[in-house]
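INFO batch 0412 | record 1 of 1 | parsing
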Amino acid sequence: MRAKKITPIVDLSGDTSEAFCTGQNDPALVSRLQNQISEKGFVYVRPSSATFASIEELRRYSLSFFLQPTRLKRKVSLRPGAYRGWTPSGVETADGRRQPDIKEILSFGNGGKNEAGWYAKNRFPEGLPEIERSVGECLENLSRTMDDISEVLASAFPEPFGHASDLFREPLDILNINYYQPSKGPSSPTMNVGSHKDFGFMTLISPMPGGSSGLQLSIAGRWRNVNLPAGTLLLVFGELAEAWTQSIIHAPVHRVNGFGASLDRVSLVYFRSPNPAQVIPTSRRSRTVGEFLLDRLRSVRADRRPRLDANVRN
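INFO prediction complete | emitting tokens
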């Protein structure tokens, strides 16, 4: 009988009692990490308790925004030229061609002071001051978590993570809070997010806890439900990482299946990519990160709204 392979956990909690702790430079553990990311493109991450608590707090606060009337949510609608604000259901199509995704999105990022651009200032809903505070705390914690992940991955992938300070100098970080309504019956559309690869470099995903998130990964041609160990997040790599490493790092196909979901669900998705002005080293025509991301973003937006300067720095 073949032994079941256990997905590695990148443990950033400081709890060395974990069976797998990549903070130790054990060659066997490094090899497992390399194989997992090269073959499957995902690992689990155990963040600090403070980071995990800030995620759960923002999840709770965000639901109060999504349950508001549409007229109130429209006040912070995503504007052309800035990926910040609210996107209604049916605007994005993750698989690029089929049924629009059945999800609402509230987007934030490591913003600046500009009204537009990759680093536009964040837009916060009126009357919900706890969301602004919670978003700020969560962005700070998740940014630090991504920094720590890059340090751990440097042992397994000296290129590109051995130069993480250069790779992610002035990174582009985007936090999407996704809201999925309960299923309206067997005849209603069930795919909250169609099958896709993320198009950034790497993504931290915190699905709705409790085993009913609907998040699924395609592994060896079969869809598998994602059931995270308690207190962990899912780290997946995107198409940009594949392009950057010439497919040494694998980007997995995944989706969110809402069939039979009876509850409101909120997931947090944190994307990290190098600065939009950086040139992808494996690109034959000096293509920048911004150009790569903009092409992908336009392919999934039914309204084609993001008209971003591909190469702008903060």
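INFO post-check: Helices lie at 27-39, 49-66, 70-73, 129-153, 158-161, 164-167, 239-244, 289-300.
INFO record closed
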